[in-house]
Amino acid sequence: MSVEGVPASAGAPLAEALVAVIRAHAAELSAIDGAIGDGDHGVNMTKGFGMAADRIGSRQVSVSEALQIIADTLLADIGGAMGPLYGTFLGEMAAASAGTDVIDASTVEGMLDRGVDAVLELGGARVGDKTLIDVLVPARAAFRHSRASGATMDQALAAMAEAAERGKESTRDLVAMIGRASRLGERSRGTLDAGAVSCSLLLGAFAQTLRGAITPPAERHRADRSAAQPESRPQATG
Ligand code: ADP
Ligand code: MG
């Protein structure tokens, strides 16, 4: 039986998806940062991810190599809070996916564990502080819990992306306790956190790209499930 997973060679489409989602939301990210920060988030992110895309070019890179190139670029060339935070997150994810031919659910869990733990340690923020941690921690937990309850990799990735989205929304009603926006105190309440928005976008694109590249395809699992539950099928007539 082959293991359900994504070929590790799929680095180029993953990088393209991450860069594309940041580019598509650059103005929105800066506008959100502008409300309670300095308005540079979309610019920083587009610059970093765009430079990384140029470095990857048309090369065939592994998932690990693609994530490492983006991480190195963010760490070396992007200032603000995001360069170090995302550089560390993606660099740890790269390390956790190196040296394998197939990125399976266990690999993804390891990637999320290393990445999220490193950002927790580096930034010192916790859930509720109105940062990207409000996205990362529930996303990682959702992936873990759905795996533990028997979900397929496809389902666990979907659960992770949904939790990321909910985590992003949760930042709207929070008061910023860390970073630039914390200087506003109560006035930071009522608007989303820019880093939480970009983080939800990135995890969503990560999940979507991996879900589209899972072998054997996720469709097979749906077919297996409906075959195992004949009562859910329409009744045959005649
Ligand atoms: P800067 O605040 O330097 O302008 P950016 O605008 O690029 O940097 O990023 C701001 C985002 O960084 C915030 O929205 C928040 O999510 C995140 N952030 C800031 N400080 C921390 C921290 N210590 N830990 C985790 N995330 C943080
Ligand atoms: Mg900013």
Structure characterization notes:
- The protein has helices at 11-24, 26-36, 41-56, 63-77, 82-96, 105-123, 133-148, 153-170, 194-212, 218-228, and strands spanning 5-7, 102-104.
- The chain has 238 residues and is an all-alpha fold.
- The protein has a single domain, classed as Alpha Horseshoe (Serine Threonine Protein Phosphatase 5, Tetratricopeptide repeat).
- A two-stranded antiparallel sheet has the order 1-2.
- Residues 226-233 have low confidence and may be disordered.
- The protein binds adenosine-5'-diphosphate and magnesium ion.
Q: What are the salient characteristics of this protein?
A:
two-stranded antiparallel ribbon; Serine Threonine Protein Phosphatase 5, Tetratricopeptide repeat; binds adenosine-5'-diphosphate; 3% strand; 238 residues; binds magnesium ion; mainly alpha
CATH superfamily: DhaL domain
Bound compounds, please? adenosine-5'-diphosphate, magnesium ion
Helix content: 55-70%
CATH architecture: Alpha Horseshoe
Largest sheet entry:
2 strands, antiparallel
Helix count from the secondary structure assignment: 10
Q: What's the overall average pLDDT, rounded?
A: 92
Query: End-to-end distance, in Å?
Result: 38 Å
Order of secondary-structure elements: EHHHHHEHHHHH
Order of the strands making up the biggest sheet: 1-2
Extended strand count: 2
Structural class: mainly alpha
Strand percentage lies at: under 5%
Task: Return the CATH topology.
Answer: Serine Threonine Protein Phosphatase 5, Tetratricopeptide repeat
How large is the radius of gyration? 19 Å
